[in-house]
Design goal:
Blueprint: E1 13-27, E2 33-41, E3 44-50, H1 55-58, E4 66-76, E5 79-90, H2 108-120, H3 125-135, H4 138-146, H5 160-175, H6 184-193, H7 198-201, E6 202-203, E7 209-210, H8 212-216, H9 219-231, H10 235-238, H11 244-256, H12 272-296, H13 321-328
Parallel strand pairs: 3-5
Antiparallel strand pairs: 1-2, 1-4, 2-3, 4-5, 6-7
């Protein structure tokens, strides 16, 4: 019976197969080489090190391969890691792939029903027709319902992109009534399309990674290209060209949804809808990362999660008021 990553504890002996998603050959202070790996299954990932492993060992496998590993789990600086004794590449046909690719815990058909309901109720006929052009494309729908929203940072599992988009739509549905000057239809279409390029940017049939187009172009320009291609088909449904200004607004929303030039956006948000999209995307991604830290932390000896470099902080898991004051050195009034 296999032991999943989320079942590993300090002191456990490891003797099982895992998917390697990252491989680095590094040198320690003395110049001796060692392997730093990321091992994953459907429940999560764990860092692993193999000391005194030279280039010949590193060449025996690549990220995306399956490894039979033996070693020991240990707690190091607040996080669990594995010290490996042996590794051996395993052929993919000898493993059960469903054990290794993480999946959304939600029902994909139900998520898709909610997505269709939002899009097919759009009041603007041009935007509704645009949505129909995407939804009629079986290849696009297959990718959109399978693709993760990211490789590591957030919603990094099969169905993650769909879950992320529907979550954003649910949040927008609640918040949009507070901002009467924001075009609801544009926001919902922008949410649908903002990460659509990830269906071409990412690879997700075995291990999550980046396609050649993803490496060379990226999901933002790819999404704009997909929008342009779909909009060219809209006249077949409406009998008239897709409105030019509407196209510009949608293109701008996609191009600016990361919010800042430093974060990969070619443009900063300059319309109410683009700003709304950026902020609700930020809300959903950051809260997902925070809740994942709380859920996946297996170190029960402290009230805090390990430091997360992407969030730039640790997350407080909770405890008694006395514990909080004693750890911070505070006193009661």
């Amino acid at each position: 019976m296999r032991k999943y990553v989320d079942q590993l504890r300090d002191g456990d002996n490891l003797d099982d197969i895992y998917l390697v998603t990252d491989k680095q050959l590094r040198a320690n202070r003395n110049g001796n080489l060692y392997l730093l790996l990321e091992l994953r299954d459907r429940t999560g990932g764990i860092s692993a090190r193999m000391w005194n492993a030279g280039d010949h060992t590193a060449r025996e496998f690549d990220p995306g391969d399956f490894l039979h590993t033996t070693g020991k789990v240990q707690l190091f600086q607040g996080s669990l890691q594995v010290i490996l004794n042996t590794i051996e590449r395993v052929e993919p046909q000898k493993v059960e792939l469903t054990d290794f690719l993480p999946h959304t815990e939600q029902s994909v058909p139900k998520l898709m029903d909610r997505l269709r309901a939002y899009l097919l109720r759009l009041g603007n006929p041009h935007l509704r027709a645009l949505a129909e052009c995407f939804l009629m494309d079986e290849s696009f729908v297959a990718g959109f319902t399978t693709c993760p929203a990211g490789v590591k940072l957030h919603h990094a599992y099969v169905g993650g992109l769909l879950e992320h988009v529907v979550s954003m739509m649910d949040a927008a549905d609640k918040l949009l009534p507070l901002y009467s000057g924001v075009d609801r239809d544009l926001v919902l279409m922008g949410i649908f399309l903002h990460d659509a390029g990830k269906t071409r940017e990412l690879t997700y049939t075995r291990a999550f990674g980046y396609s050649d187009a993803g490496q060379l172009v990226g999901h933002i320009p790819l999404a704009v290209e997909m929008l342009t291609q779909a909009a060219a088909k809209v006249p077949d449904l409406t009998g008239e060209p897709f409105p030019r200004e509407m196209m510009l607004r949608l293109q701008h929303m996609i191009l600016s949804h990361h919010g800042e030039l430093a974060f990969g956006s070619p443009k900063v948000p300059m319309t109410p809808e683009a700003m709304f999209l950026h902020l609700i995307d930020l809300l959903d991604t950051r809260m997902h990362m925070v809740m994942r830290e709380l859920k996946e932390d297996r170190n029960n000896s402290t009230a805090w999660t390990p430091y997360n470099a992407n969030l730039g902080r640790r997350i407080y898991k909770g405890g008694t008021q006395g514990d909080l004051y004693s750890e911070t050195g505070g006193t009661y009034d």
